[in-house]
Specification:
By secondary structure, the protein is of the alpha/beta class. It is built from 13 helices and eight strands. Bound molecules: 1,3-dihydroxyacetonephosphate (13P).
């Protein structure tokens, strides 16, 4: 089954407008449009850098998608500090991250908020990347599979099959591997991703599960991406630190494109 390959950069709280502009100018010189036809490359800057990124991408002529790291589950009203999906779409945002462990941990986003955001994103016609992943303590207690399956079940609760098809991507990001340099063993990441796919098949159907791209995230960089992309069930990567390095991001995309051409061959 050939699924869409995706390399998504989550810039987190990094890169102001000037840095965004110069990063995307540099990166576009190194990215290859042929690779970008095989791989969906996505960048998720901060809110204030989104418009700058949209312009820089347009000027580059390259097929790079624009994502937001967060948004409100509310449409409008008295929600000081929030930004809604229509405001994002107006800038050219096509993708949103939902349920990142940093949002769950530092901003108290629970399964119910995450489920609301997934639904809001889908209703708005955005592509949703739903994140899940276990803490070190959960892994040590042997509960990883049940934990991650539970996060997926709660995250997609109430969605119709039609909502799901090609609109939702899952990212498996073990928390202990995020920003630590401690990448999850790729065979183990593949195993957990198979558990996630089996859960999708149980909750939806096998065809939808087989068609859903599932990414790995956590200390991905150019030196480990080939091994990660070589796994049967890993369809790409959600990348933090390495995604804001001019040499790294294009190398990650190139690796995913090599893997995509093998799948086609
Ligand atoms: P790092 O690639 O820096 O480990 O971050 C992963 C991540 O959280 C992407 O969303």
């Amino acid at each position: 089954m050939s699924r869409k390959k995706i390399i998504a950069g989550n810039w987190k709280l990094n890169m102001n407008q000037a840095e965004t502009q110069s990063f995307l100018n540099e990166v576009s010189k190194k990215l290859n449009q042929n690779d970008l036809t095989q791989v969906q490359a996505l960048v998720c800057p901060t809110f204030t850098s989104l418009a700058t990124a949209a312009t820089a991408i347009k000027e580059s002529g390259l097929t790079i998608a624009l994502g937001a790291q967060n948004f409100s589950q509310h449409k409008s009203g008295a929600y000081t500090g929030e930004i809604n999906t229509e405001m994002l779409k107006e800038i050219g945002v096509t993708h949103v991250l939902v349920g990142h462990s940093e949002r769950r941990e530092h901003f108290s986003e629970d399964d119910s908020i995450i489920n609301d955001k997934v639904k809001t994103g889908i209703e708005a016609g955005l592509q949703v990347i739903l994140c899940c992943g276990e803490s070190e303590a959960t892994r040590e207690s042997g509960e990883t599979d049940a934990w991650v399956a539970g996060q997926i079940e709660a995250g997609i609760k109430g969605l119709e099959l039609n909502d799901f098809a090609s609109r939702i991507t899952i990212a498996y990001e073990p928390i202990w591997a995020i920003g630590t340099g401690k990448v999850c063993d790729s065979a183990e990441a593949n195993r957990v991703i198979k558990v996630i796919r089996a859960k999708l098949a149980e909750l939806l159907d096998q065809t939808t599960a087989d068609a859903t791209s599932i990414l790995y995230g956590g200390s991905v960089k150019s030196s480990n991406i080939d091994e990660i992309m070589g796994q049967s069930d890993i369809d790409g990567a959600l990348v933090g630190g390495a995604s804001i390095k001019v040499e790294e991001f294009p190398a990650l995309v190139a690796s995913a494109a090599r893997e995509a051409s093998k799948t086609v061959a």
